[in-house]
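Quick one, C-alpha cells below. Sequence please?
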C-alpha cells in the first residue's frame, strides 16, 4: 500500500508540472502578440527618430555649405549643397528622394510675411482688387516675399529638407505616417556670409 501511495504521489506531482507548463504556454500565446507589437513599435519609432536626426544633421551641413557661397568644381551651388546633404544622409536614405528647397529674404523679420497691402474690407488677408506694394517686382501679390534660391551675400536663407520615410510595419503605418509614409522635415535658417 505504501508503494502504491508513493507512485500516486509521483504521478500527481508530474501531472501538476505538466499542467503548469500548459498554462504557461496558453499565457504566452495570449500575451505574445501584444509584446511583439510593442517591440516592433519601439524599433520602428527608434528608426524614425534616427532618420530625423540624420536629416537634421544633413540639412545643417548643407546650409553651412550654402551660406559660405562655396561651389564645387564643375557644379552649380544647388548641386554642391545637394551633394553635401546626400553624403550625410545617403547611407540611410534614398538620395533621389531627398528634396531641398531654399528661400532667401533680406531680413529675419521678412520670413513668412507677405507684401504690404491695404486691407479694404478688413478681413486680415489680401483679396483680389486690393492695393499692394509689389516689393519683388513680379507684378502680382505674394503672400511670402521670399525669393526662391540661395540668395546673395548677407541674405537670410531658409533651407527646407524633406524626405518621405517609409514605415515598414503595417500596424505602425497608420500610427506614425499616412499611407505608409512619414514625411520627415528639417528647416534651417542661416545668414549668408559676406562672400563676393
Amino acid at each position: 500500500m505504501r508503494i502504491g501511495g508513493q507512485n500516486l504521489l509521483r504521478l500527481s506531482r508530474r501531472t501538476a508540472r505538466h499542467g503548469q507548463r500548459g498554462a504557461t504556454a496558453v499565457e504566452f500565446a495570449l500575451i505574445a502578440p501584444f509584446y511583439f507589437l510593442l517591440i516592433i513599435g519601439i524599433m520602428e519609432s527608434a528608426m524614425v527618430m534616427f532618420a530625423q536626426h540624420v536629416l537634421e544633421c544633413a540639412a545643417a551641413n548643407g546650409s553651412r555649405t550654402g551660406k559660405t557661397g562655396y561651389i564645387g568644381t564643375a557644379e552649380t551651388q544647388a548641386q554642391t549643397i545637394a551633394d553635401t546633404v546626400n553624403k550625410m544622409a545617403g547611407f540611410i536614405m534614398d538620395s533621389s528622394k531627398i528634396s531641398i528647397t531654399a528661400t532667401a529674404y533680406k531680413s529675419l523679420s521678412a520670413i513668412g510675411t507677405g507684401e504690404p497691402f491695404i486691407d479694404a474690407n478688413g478681413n486680415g488677408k489680401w483679396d483680389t482688387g486690393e492695393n499692394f506694394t509689389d516689393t519683388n517686382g513680379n507684378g502680382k501679390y505674394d503672400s511670402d516675399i521670399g525669393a526662391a534660391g540661395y540668395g546673395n551675400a548677407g541674405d537670410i536663407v531658409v533651407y527646407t529638407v524633406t524626405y518621405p520615410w517609409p514605415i515598414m510595419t503595417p500596424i505602425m503605418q497608420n500610427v506614425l505616417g499616412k499611407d505608409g509614409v512619414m514625411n520627415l522635415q528639417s528647416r534651417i535658417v542661416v545668414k549668408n556670409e559676406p562672400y563676393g
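The chain has a mean pLDDT of 85. Strands lie at 99-105, 147-148, 156-166, 181-191.
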